[in-house]
## 1
Amino acid sequence: MRGRDRFVRAILPVIAMSVLAAALGGCAGGKTADDSSRITIGIPQDLDSLDPHYMTAAGTKEVLFNVFEGLVKPDQAGDLVPAVASDYAISEDASRYTFTLRDGIRFHDGSEVTTEDVVYSLERCKSAGVNPALDEIASISAPDDKTVEVALNTHDADFLCNLTCAIIPKSDADPGTNPIGTGPYRYVSRSPQENFVVTRFDDYWGTPAYIRDVTFKIEANADSIVMDLEGGSIDMYARVTSAQKDQLSDRFTVYTGAMNLVQALYLNHDFGPFADENVRKALCCLLDRQGVLDFVSDGEGSPIASSMYPAFSKYFLPELNDLYPTDVEKAKELLKAAGYDESHPLEFTITVASNYQQHVDTAQVLSEQFAKAGVRATIQTVEWNTWLSEVYTNRNYESTVVGVDASTLSASALLSRFRSDAGNNFTNYRNADYDAAYDRAAAATDDNDKTAAYKDCERILAEDAANVYIQDLPCFVALNKKFEGYVFYPLYVQDVALLKPAN
């Protein structure tokens, strides 16, 4: 029955697409076949904020990457390179970071970037509280009109990755409605739940974007993606499913990479059953990762068993995948020890955002796998904004399937959220041993010591069955062959400036 449902889901958009294409006579939305000066990119949900210091959703960050820049920013190889700053220096004890402002760099409103803007932006970003790592900043100063110094309360050789924080003009009274950055694209307009529009910034300090006008179109209905690609209302969609990929015509190039996230069944530890480690371990024993990969993405994807994905090869521990092999009888024993059996089954709800088909599909497979031990997992799909407010912000949920990304090129971006007192600890996980291991990592000045402590954090999460870790999903990017140049980054980024009209 599951295979039949998947076939129906796959074929309906193709039928609808064919009808639409015939009706439009090969032209959609006023775009012509040779119109390569603009592109429309489908995204799964609306931006949660235009203010770069208050955005939290990974989907927002990957879009606004094109509008805002920090003192440094990640490149395609995953290295941090100068952006608003032209260069930087780190003190020997890694407690002071000194930046030299890039000559002549301008904001999108035409004003020149000053050290006053930089100091204001960093202080504002710190006070926003979205990135707890910025709490380690002791002071931010500008000793002259070209230099900014950031002093820390501690020694942290990895702190540079937190200085990707967006630099904005001090004069911008409301960045939430008037976003002004220094990136290759500048803001034009936004229609909530419809689109976000940018245009090329011709005074950009770096290599200018190839395509002039870009519209990010919200595609909240996953079943419409193929139809909209083939019908021409969108030219690109960054995360089509394997089923959608197979439906596309030869007018599209499909790029294959990794999503660079940790997909898991995240458990709310304040929900009674999940406070019992026997319950959590039982769910891990019921997980058949390969079964999930086979159904969700035709076997592609990278199995993971803790809060780290393979692109962070320095920290990734593949041996943790063997910690809880699939064992239904062992799961039943653990459930019985926790007080659950056929007469009193474990029951809980998996809340999933409906616009992420891969997560919905994963929840369906998990529900079937858990049922083998009598566990009743009910799936509840909600709109993205509801998920963001109820699950992530209010923590009003029992479990959820989602992918957690790294907002910066540091292990701390994935691991800091599991500290007991972390503001973004949406799973309410509390473990004194974990807190101690994380504190060791944060305080370490030697890179080997820091790496070892981060690995201890990963082992604790895995051994404690903090969540049911599944995979780093494969990423299939569909791009109309009118365009080329898509590049994968080792974190959640859509670098539109690299796209260009095909030759």
## 2
Amino acid sequence: MLDKRLLDILACPLCKGPLEYDASHEELLCRIDALAYPVRDGIAVMLQEEARKLDPASRDSAQHE
């Protein structure tokens, strides 16, 4: 689980847009770039090479807090 205050200040490293936390997959989602950044042991890994591309179905139906 990410701290809400941390989530408020984090931004996508590519587009600088907002991120959403998907607790069920432990990822930070950038809907603009269609990328999901992993959160490992409570630490967001904000590297493009570690992000996975979101498919259209998961972009629209991802659960987030």
